[in-house]
Design goal:
The complex is a heterodimer of chains A (about 100) and B (about 375). Chain A is built from three helices and no strands. With about 100 residues, chain A is mainly alpha-helical. In chain B, helix 1 packs antiparallel against helix 10 (about 250-270), helix 4 (about 80-95) packs parallel to helix 13 (about 330-355) and helix 6 (about 125-160) packs antiparallel against helix 10. Classes of the chains: A mainly alpha (about 100), B mainly alpha (about 375).
Chain lengths: ~100, ~375
Amino acid sequence: MSWINLSALWKIIVYGLIAGAGLPALFAGGLYALSLGPNRARAATAGADGGDSDVLIGGSVAGMVLAAIAFLIVLAAIGWSVYEIYTLGHPAPAKK
Amino acid sequence: MSNDTVLVLVVITALAFDFTNGFHDTGNAMATSIATGALGPRTAVAISGLLNFVGAFLSLTVAATIASGLVNTGVVTLTVVAAGLCGGIIWNLLTWLFGIPSSSSHALIGGVIGATIAAAGGSAVNWHGLVSKVIIPAVLSPVIAGLIAAIGTWSLYRITRSLTEGGRKHGFRIGQVGSACVVSLAHGTNDAQKTMGVITLALIANGTLAQGSNAPDWVIVCCALAIALGTYIGGWRLIRTLGKGLVEIESPQGMAAESASAAVILLSSTFGYSLSTTHVATGSIIGTGLGKKGADVRWNVAGRMATAWVFTLPSAAIVGAGAYGIAAGITGTFGVVVVLLILAALCGGIYWRSRQNTVDHKNVNAEWTSGVSPDSSVIAEPTSA
């Protein structure tokens, strides 16, 4: 009779960090990659002038490809998690 | 025959609880998106309602735990379930009136436990299960979620520090909406199951279902509908407290908070812990305030909420026990009917009281004005400072 299930606890913390902090960080990396390129320098100077530019796409092709890969990984991870939960939540034929 | 009347009443009351659970928790998923303007308030509640509906069909693992792990199901009668639901609903409505996000799960569990103690004494409660499956997770989960959100927030700002302010805001709004949608889904999965568990418990108590049965399809559909409708109605008072009261939130923080909440809720329910989504969401939002330099957490608001959390289980238990006492005192179907009539009257009263200072989609993000509710003075002070 243990009060705390330690093995579940550390799994929640580790997987929680990977999914809960890692995926958003990957998304942020995608945003960063997306911002690379010639437009970014212009946006930065516009920003320095006090204008609040919301230029998001820098214009670099490599950056955009990297960003697309990052966003796809994030989406795939979410889709996979939902699928896992569905299969775990419906163990074998529940009825019949 | 009379038992069937009671059964129908209990099912309706359970669905009413599910409905309050929905609107009590809209804010857990959508408060930060509404506060940062990433989504319009009405769009946010509509999306959240839909995803709660879908989420309710996703998993059925928690439904069993809520009933069987905490009380001795042998002593549970329809009257006990009805009384327990009264405790849960009244606590949910009172905390909503005062704008305090508190755990719907704890309200329900507290109500059922109180009614069980009144019916069969303390030995009918599985205290070890209560502590290890409910209380310890309730203390740990906000801390874990807060930690993940703080680390997430720090890294999001770190990675995107070269982006322009506007570009960052724009980009993370999209991410924030995505992560809020996952939380809505998780909420439907996690919370709708609790009501499914209670209705299943009632059906078993009535002998309609065999011991250890799964929730029938009509129960799943009704619970999904009730929680989705409740979510769509939106607990605007609670959305305000979570989105504006705790921390002033920017979109990267919103994304970090929602991602941490989604991860912790989904992981925990996979392990069979019926966590409070409210505790997790609050922990995440506080964590995101700690993870960003210069962001202030309003600890007085957080302290108020923590106090309410401590009182949730015992208060709902007292109401549940009292409701059982009345129903058992009058006895029979009539006793249950009287208790449910009292419940309906109290709900009406609380709703009428709330109309005197309505919070809805129009003023949800506005500054607090004085005398709105007892909370308003607490929240208004730091906001205007």
